[in-house]
Every structure is written in C-alpha cells, then in structure tokens.
Design a protein that fits this description.
The protein is an alpha/beta fold. It has one domain: Rossmann fold (3-Layer(aba) Sandwich). The strands form two sheets. A six-stranded mixed β-sheet has the order 5-4-6-7-10-9, sandwiched between helices. A four-stranded antiparallel β-sheet has the order 1-2-3-8, with no helix packed on it. A hairpin with a 4-residue loop joins strand 9 and strand 10. The longest helix is centred in the first third of the chain and has 19 residues. It is globular, with a radius of gyration of 19 Å. One of its GO terms (molecular function) is methyltransferase activity. It comes from Spirosoma validum.
Length: about 270
C-alpha cells in the first residue's frame, strides 16, 4: 500500500473503533505524514445523516469563515464573478454569502440543500468559479488527489479548512479530530501532506494559524494571506472595502417565480 497523496510507503499507525463497532486500522505515510484509514467500507452507514450529532459547531463555523471568505474575494478575486461552496452541507454559507452580494452556488452529493435551494451548481449552466470554498471537507475524502482534480475543474483557486496534526504521534485518544464515533473523518493531514497535494498539481499553498488553507495558481505572500484571513483583520478589511448590494431580494423574486411555475401558476 502507498500513500494516496505522495505515493510513498506507509506504515500501520493505530487502530480505533469506528461507529462504535468496527475495529479499523489507520496508516501513516512515512514521507508526508498523512494519516488515513483502511478502505472505508462503512461510509454508507456513516452518512445515513450527512451532518453528524457531533457537528454542533456548524453555525459557529459558518459565522467564523464568512468574513474570511469575503476578505479573500475582496483581495484576490473578482467579486462580480460566480463562486462555489463544495461540500456545502445545508447551504447555510451559500445563503449568507448571497445575502452579502456574492453570486455563490452550492455543491454537495450527501446533504440536502435547506438554506440555498435552487442555488446548487446543478441548477445552473456549468461555469468555472472565481473561487471554490471547501470547509471541513478534505478530511472526508477517500482519494484526495482525485477529488482535488474534480475541484480544479470548477475553479483554479480553492479556499478550505481542515485541522492539521497539532503534534507528532497524534492518536484518537489525544486528538479529537479523529472522531471515530462518526466514521466520517478518514484522512488527517499534516502540513507536509497538504504541501505534497498542492505540489502534485503545481499549485501554490498558503495557510494561516486557524487551519485555513489556500491552493491556487496565483502566487500570494503567505504573510499577507495570514493577515487578510485573520478573523480580526478580515472584518476590518471588509469594512474598509465596503458592503455589496445583497442578493436577498433578487433571490426571493426568483425563487417565488420558480415556485409559482412549479405549482402551475402564471409566472410573475
């Protein structure tokens, strides 16, 4: 068996009881330190509910990343372009960003779209987004290389979050991010493994001190990236740039029109 990221040799690392009943082997890459499970045969069971009971931080996470996404768009993207939230869950972040004037769309194959219905990427013609966000997604990927290749067909710039191994020899007992109870975290990254993943696609890799990462064809100063994506500075920077006109009213009219047409009424 080779590392799914850098194709180096791996070693058996630790075991954990996944979903409370499967004794699962974890492996670790001898080169890039990527930790991953044996073939995750339990995923259908793990995704009976796409959002697990342990994900009590979902709302807090969206509030935390919202100004960071805005600041990245304001600094390095065309704010009038289209954007994609990959693995976007219930669509909360998409709705929040559309409310702030950004033409955002959701992608998720596991989770129902509760907050941004009709604004999935499947609801519109194919487009390549100016930015793709993927928060708390990478640790769920069976094959990070294949999945990143898919993401890059949708955007050349990927802003994402995943916690990196905080110290050497992390274990399910010493690091909460394993979460074997849910069975969904099947890949755990080291900074070296994320760099190796970026290198496979000739991408520049930036990161900050809050487990926010950027893969991009653009060359960006990492010190500047850390500043712009620092929660304190991002809010200040966005205030300096100024507000955009919300898409809320426009979206309401569009959704109402679609709803009336689906019910057989004349369009507005």
């Amino acid at each position: 068996m080779d590392c799914p990221i850098c194709e180096s040799s791996v070693s058996a690392y630790c075991t954990a009881k996944v979903l409370g009943k499967y004794n699962i082997q974890y492996f670790r890459c001898n080169h890039c330190n990527f930790i991953f499970t044996e073939n995750p045969f339990w995923l259908d069971e793990a995704y009976n509910s796409a959002i697990t009971k342990l994900d009590i931080g979902l709302i807090n996470r969206n509030e935390f990343v919202l100004p960071i996404v805005q600041s990245v768009i304001n600094k390095w993207c065309n704010p009038d372009a289209q954007f994609i939230d990959y693995g976007g869950g219930y669509g909360m972040l998409v709705r929040m960003l559309r409310d702030r004037g950004f033409d955002y769309y959701r992608q998720d194959i596991y989770c129902p779209n509760l907050y941004a219905d009709l604004f999935d990427i499947t609801d519109t013609n194919f487009f390549k987004g100016e930015l793709l966000t993927a928060f708390e997604v990478f640790e769920h990927l069976i094959n990070p290389v294949t999945e990143l290749e898919k993401m890059l067909t949708l955007s050349d710039t990927i802003l994402f979050s995943t916690e990196v191994q905080p110290f050497d020899k992390v274990t399910p007992e010493s690091w909460w991010y394993f979460t074997p109870e849910t069975g969904q975290h099947i890949g755990l990254y080291h900074r070296k493994s994320l760099q190796a993943l970026a290198d496979r696609f000739n991408l520049n890799y930036n990161w900050n001190n809050y487990d926010i990462h950027l893969f991009s064809k653009k060359s960006i100063s990492n010190n500047l990236f850390k500043t712009i994506t620092d929660p304190r500075w991002s809010r200040w920077y966005n205030k300096f740039i100024g507000k955009r006109e919300s898409l809320l009213k426009k979206d309401f009219v569009y959704v109402q029109k679609c709803l009336r047409e689906s019910l057989g009424h004349l369009p507005l």
